[in-house]
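We emphasize that the prediction below concerns an isolated chain of 416 residues; any contacts that depend on oligomerization or on bound cofactors are therefore not represented. The input was used exactly as deposited, without trimming of termini.
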Amino acid sequence: MPLAQNRLTDRTLRNLKPAAKRAYDLADGGDLYVRVEPSGSKVFWLRYQLDGHRRRWVLGHYGETGVSLAEAREKRDDARKLLRQGIDPFEYKKQQRRAEQRALEASQYAEREATRQEALTVAWLVEEFCDHELPVIHKKPGWGTALLRTHVAARLGALPLSAFSSAQLWECLDPLRAGQAATARHVYGLIRKLCAFGLRRGYLAADPSATIERKTVAPKPTPRQRVLSDDEIRELWFAFGDGGVSRGVWLALKLLLVTGQRRGEVMRAQRGEFDLRTQRWVIPVEHLGKKKTPTGTTPHLVPLSALAVQLLGELFELSPGSPWLLPSPDDPAKPIDERALNRAVSRRNLTWSPHDLRRTVRTRLSSLGVPAVVAERVIGHELPELLAVYDVHAYEAEKRDALKRWAGELRRILRI
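Result of the prediction step, given as a token string:
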């Protein structure tokens, strides 16, 4: 005799009390159950069998904001119809939801396209540029996107592209020129690329930035020529860590001085880039601090001196469970903030910056008699275009010798 169906009532469900420690189930019939959790939550679930396998399908929580008893029974009856056809009701519903989601996404995309065609604005052009062009041409697309959104889209976002002119661009640049000259120059460079993109794609009839020169936005700053003295090198090596600077940041500054690489390349470095046995550091293309070029670039090989290997060994010991050489103190799954080195130097009120360590290495290599081509390759500079085309020598042996000589000079300076 078949079991009775629809045995539960709303009154019964409302009055169900949770057990102290374990959940328990009550049957409504037709393989429909309600589970009462120790928390008091009540969940409908369906038991069924298909292709010799028993399966369980959670239908939802009982209650005003969840699934009613009538709705749970309707889902049960629909599922039984599907099972008679050999169809898994759970998979069927999942495919239905996917189809509905795809239809919704297609509808939303069509609406967005229609809206875009109706009104092309500066904000829309910024987003198109940041989505399709900036990741290809810029080494830090996220940073560039933030600058354009903050200083261009936030001011001119609603402006139709047909009204986009140099007068509006000056509204973006003028607030930056007095106190933020470097930012003004960066924003100007991004605007030039944005307008060139708009012209190529046919979104702009003319370039509104064409009459604005970089030097009128903000004069080019005088190139820094700061090189650390022997005394400053000794202070960095032996005394910099006094006063609240983390051990990892201090070691990172030392590594910059020993290898001559870019700050970002050290801060973004992953442990897998280093082979301490063969004394090699291979910086992948995506971590290189170089501008993207049409011909692309190649990974940069940094031979490691014994001094560099010693520093890396200490860094590895500081973060054994993280993939990053310098993990974030807040989240070891992420790298440390790239500005951490600058902040550490600023707190000491020093007259040099982390980038000056790189210039120091390059200058000292020349003083040690290292040929310019080798010294440039050591710090990861590209060779001049014609030379780069015809000279594909890796310079590993020469770079290793140069960095070994620099490590020896450092040991002389440091008296170690």
